[in-house]
């Protein structure tokens, strides 16, 4: 299948295992590959009703939906047809359970702190932020959820190799390990991913993000 290029293929798709449990988030490009190979099916929720479609039937549904396209709907044009980007797919044979621990990485730290400097409280782009050890490494501070925060370059330089108390500044919020995926919560803030909520109860909010 020759898919047209565009940001729609870079969108996110929630992946369920065969028991309808959320296990992963992948790009729409990967989702289409799985659908085309009959390794997954599309899952939709309309007025509380669940429906599933293989690639062929999803193509037919997409033709009908194209006539009543909503603002958040995204379509990909191929050589011969247009097909809607799914929001949820279910793997036909995958039965592994989701991860229960939020991955400790730069992206999740930025997401946890909302791209906000934890000293001055201002919001910055990712490129304007750094990660700061609350208790500096030279004083025994470790790289943990409770000791790493986002900091703008100005506050980071001002703090230097000191603790906030030593530098005369305060944290706007104590850093803690999140119980749910911060990056996933950001996704759920967008209307186009609202259908994910049906599968993301408290037990499964730590699905791994690419």
UniProtKB/TrEMBL annotation:
Residues annotated as domain HNH nuclease: 104-157
SMART domains in UniProt: HNHc
Family matches, as InterPro entries: HNH_5 (IPR029471), HNH_nuc (IPR003615), NA-targeting_endonuclease (IPR052892)
CDD domains attached to this UniProt entry: HNHc
Protein name from the UniProt record: HNH nuclease domain-containing protein
Record organism: Paludisphaera borealis
């Amino acid at each position: 299948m020759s898919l047209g290029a565009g940001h729609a293929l870079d969108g996110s798709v929630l992946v369920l295992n065969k028991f309808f449990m959320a296990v992963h988030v992948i790009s729409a490009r990967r989702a289409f590959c799985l659908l085309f190979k009959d390794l997954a099916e599309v899952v939709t929720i309309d007025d509380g009703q669940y429906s599933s479609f293989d690639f062929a039937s999803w193509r037919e549904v997409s033709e009908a939906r194209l006539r009543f396209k909503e603002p958040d709907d995204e379509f990909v044009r191929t050589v011969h047809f247009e097909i809607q980007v799914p929001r949820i797919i279910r793997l036909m044979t995958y039965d592994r359970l989701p991860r229960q621990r939020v991955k400790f990485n730069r992206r999740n730290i930025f997401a946890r702190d909302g791209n906000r400097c934890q000293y001055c409280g201002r919001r910055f782009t990712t490129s304007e932020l750094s990660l700061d050890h609350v208790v500096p490494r030279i004083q025994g501070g470790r790289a943990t959820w409770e000791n790493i925060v986002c900091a703008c370059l100005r506050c980071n330089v001002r703090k230097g190799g000191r603790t906030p108390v030593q530098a005369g500044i305060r944290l706007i919020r104590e850093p803690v390990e999140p119980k749910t995926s911060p990056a996933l919560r950001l996704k759920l803030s967008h209307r186009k991913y609202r259908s994910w909520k049906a599968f993301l109860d408290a037990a499964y909010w730590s699905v791994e993000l690419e």
